[in-house]
Amino acid sequence: MKRIMLSVAVAMLAAATCMWAQPTEDERVEELLRKMTLQEKIGQLNQLSVGGFDHNAAGMMRAGMVGSILNECNPNVLNRYQRAAVEDSRLGIPLLISRDVIHGFKTMFPIPLGLAATFDPELVQQGARFAAIEATASGIRWTFSPMLDIARDPRWGRIAEGSGEDTYLDTQMGVAMVKGYQGETFDQTSMAACVKHFVAYGAAEGGRDYNSTGVSERTLRNVYLPPFEACVEAGVMTLMTSFNDNDGIPSTGNGFLVNDVLRGEWGFEGFVVSDWASIYEMVNHGYAEDNKHAGELAFNAGVDMDMMSYAYIRHLEELINEGKVSMEDLDNAVRNILRVKFRLGLFENPYIDESNVEAAFYSEEALEAARKSAVESAVLLTNNGVLPLNRSKVKTVLVTGPMADAPHDQLGTWTFDGDPAHTVTPLKALKQLYGNDVQVIYEPGLKYSREFDKGGIAKAVKAAKKADVILAFLGEEAILSGEAHSLVDISLKGDQRKLLEALHETGKPVVLNIMAGRSLVLDFEIEHSDAILYSFHPGTMGGPAIAQLIFGDETPSGKTPVTFPKHVGQIPLYYNHNMTGRPANGREELLHEIPLKAGQTSLGMTSYWLDCPFAPEFPFGYGLTYTTFKYSAPEIEKTEYGVNDTVHACVTVRNTGDKEAIEVVQLYVRDLVGSVTRPVKELKGFKRVAIAPGETVKVAFELDIQDLAFYGKDMVKKVEPGKFQLWIAGDSASGTPIEFEVK
Ligand code: GLC
Fold first, then answer.
1. For residue 686, how far is its CA from the centre of ligand 1 (angstroms)?
2. Whole-angstrom Cα distance, residue 636 to residue 651?
3. What is the rounded average pLDDT of the residues 88-93?
4. 15 pLDDT band (50/70/90 cuts)?
5. Cα–Cα distance measured from residue 80 to residue 660, given in angstroms and rounded to the nearest whole number
């Protein structure tokens, strides 16, 4: 009886609780929406950039005319703005406070291009989580990251901000960052992520930022859109449109992209923000008559929030009254924004605890994750055996070059809030970690990457005479990559090559570390050094990472996330290109070596250049380490598969050297014949595998045949039966394929 009574009591309590159950998110949105005036609804769509406390801006917030702010990070100022919105406005809707937290907030991680080189999504997710913990402690609850722009052109400065040239790698990294920023469950450290720039911004003609792009719908769907779709499936809360006009239509006014694909096909429930003034810029594009027309085009294309065009706040009411924008669409835009604010818990906790914000910064765990990321993002491009340094023989090193002790530039682009005072540079790290055993001589030679010699090179050369090994740190100042910082010449600037040549001529071994925001042309550097360790811009803990790699306390495992061209004239040059009807025959001899016969009128009739090899300097997915690996030919369990089957492929990898190392084992596939031409190779999987000296490990992959689906001639995504090749190798240019057929 007692048990029955108890169960009755429990049932009654449950019923009571149910009657007073908390309203759902959507119910709360609807309840608030019903109370809002037209002006208050439009106010939610308005994002304002602020710097310091501005009374006019606060007045707009009190009037309910601002939904979000960006570019302010002082917790006290942010709380003042938030009180204006929450306590002084009619409905008290909290602001969504945003910032470009691109690769760390205070603890800076390697630039995203470097993070991609880790081929380690778990580590990248950890880094994004630490960034969210630091940023949300300051009151930032929305970041404009991850940038998913596929980049096949290192002249484009923003290649630094993305994950390189490959769709699959970009997808893995993007999803990892979304999960890291937002957290597996929502709490006060959750920061809404924003996938950007939607879409194909990285295909800018000439690699010139903001330039037009001409990407077909099929290439959009097969190359540029999949990372965005995957992040939508992973629950990303926001998305940003891009500046560029693609095929004549600015993305910020392209209803096909936002209304049809993003919302119609993918069911995106978050909200869409324009890029900075990209609504107004449709006037510059010649796509809108004026800002009001631009506002109409952007809003009807599905852009919910206006970043700094003032188009919505100034013109939406007129557009509604003129029937050019519907009230229903306005309500939906407001719903999208309110839903994110409710999900982040802003209504319950709108304010920042100012008591101990700094405590969240530079934790030991965050710094260690940043160091580990810098280790794994370093790519060993060349090594004649000089690395790792032999500690029994190397007693004096010369540290030289403009990047050896450059605390700001080492952080790379988009480091608004990273404090260079916390940067551990290679010079500092070498002294701290190895200064007891090794004498560290420092002569920069050049003060910054663009500098022309003012006598420093001679000093460095003189100092080199005392050294057993020269550690040269060259590269790019942070400002040479990032937004609006594109280059036509992607070789080292200033007199860096002159410095390297002079160091090389001393006859001492030269270990070259390069910090840069892009892949560079390195023919000269290869000829004038004994090893090249490429660190991209490695962030706060780059110094210890590089020092430990050079001395062998860490082992390189990074792989190139972009192709490194031999010459800038080869660009765009990427591994997953199409075959063409006259594939380059791989001819590598140089123009002057080609013998001419009398009357000869042709030097070859295939797709390559007369004056430059077809092949890159370093292919996608390439990277050396301190041992060597031997791959077996790949094996698969059968040779015929149905469209819903899974290919079980494997390979054995043997460590044929004397050091343990991690190999990024990569799986590539080629669709030999399609209803449209297909890439010669596509990455479909990778695994980081630690292999001890002499050990042979079996590395297995499961490849779903459905992962081979693509948009064909009929623009329908499906697997097309036919023959395929499969590689499992250590980079995109190695390995022998095995064939299978899809029936
Ligand atoms: C910039 C960038 C975008 C950034 C935004 C806010 O122009 O294009 O990536 O998030 O403005 O700073």
1. 31
2. 9
3. 98
4. very low
5. 55
Give Cβ neighbours of residue 476 (< 8 Å, ≥ 6 apart).
Answer: 409, 449, 492, 493, 515, 516, 517, 518, 520, 537
Candidate from 47, 276, 309 with most ligand 1 atoms within 8 A of CB, to mutate? 276
Whose alpha carbon is nearest atom 3 of ligand 1?
Answer: 275
Shortest-distance Cα residue to atom 7 of ligand 1: 276
d(CA 513, ligand 1 centre) in Å: 30
Distance of CA 276 from the midpoint of ligand 1 (Å): 6
Alpha-carbon torsion (563, 565, 568, 573), positive or negative: negative
CA separation for the pair 526, 384 (Å, rounded): 11
Q: What residues flank ligand 1, with Cβ below 6 Å?
A: 100, 144, 196, 275-276, 483
The ranges of the chain annotated as CATH 3.40.50.1700 are 371-550
Determine the 3-state secondary structure of 76 from DSSP.
helix
Active-site annotation, residues: 275
What is the per-residue pLDDT for 3?
36
Measured by CA distance, the residue closest to atom 11 of ligand 1 is 276
Q: Which two tokens stand for residue 517?
A: 């925001």
Task: Kindly state the tokens that stand for 656.
Answer: 């044929």
pLDDT of residue 162: 98
How far is the centre of ligand 1, averaged over its atoms, from the C-alpha of 557 (Å)? 32
* Cis previous bond, 485, omega within 30: no
Using a cut of 0.85, tell me whether the model's pTM lies above it: yes
- How many Å apart are CA 173 and CA 182, to the nearest integer? 14
Using CA positions, which residue lies closest to atom 8 of ligand 1? 275
Task: Say how far apart CA 412 and CA 409 lie, in whole Å.
Answer: 5
User: What does each C-alpha distance from 480 to 362, 477, 570, 645 come to in angstroms?
Assistant: 27, 6, 21, 47
Rounded to a whole number of angstroms, the CA Rg of the chain reads 28
User: Domain 629-742 falls in which CATH fold?
Assistant: Immunoglobulin-like (2.60.40)
Residue ranges matching CATH 2.60.40.10 in the chain: 629-742
Helices 121-137 and 364-377 cross at an angle (nearest 10°) of 140
User: pLDDT per residue over 401-460, tens digit each?
Assistant: 999 999 999 999 999 999 999 999 999 999 999 999 999 999 999 999 999 999 999 999
Query: Which is the CATH superfamily of the domain at 371-550?
Result: Glycoside hydrolase family 3 C-terminal domain (3.40.50.1700)
Rounded to an integer, what distance in angstroms lies between the CA atom of residue 448 and that of residue 499?
A: 12
Q: From 140, 147, 252, 483, give the residue whose CB has the most ligand 1 atoms within 8 Å, as the site to mutate.
A: 483
* Block residue for tokens 């109409």: 296
Q: For 159-177, what is each residue's pLDDT tens digit?
A: 999 999 999 999 999 999 9
- Tell me, in angstroms, the distance from the centre of ligand 1 to residue 274's CA: 9
Q: Which atom of ligand 1 is nearest to the CA of 243?
A: 8
Contacts of 282 (CB under 8 A, 6+ apart): 250, 252, 253, 288, 294, 297, 298
Element (H, E) at 40: helix 38-44
Residue closest via CA to ligand 1's atom 10 equals 144
Helix (H, G, I), strand (E, B) or coil at 447: coil
Q: Are 278 and 246 in contact (CB under 8 A)?
A: no
Q: How many residues does the chain have?
A: 743
In sign, the C-alpha dihedral spanning 326, 328, 334, 340 is: negative
Helix residue ranges, H only, 289-421: 291-301, 311-321, 327-343, 364-377
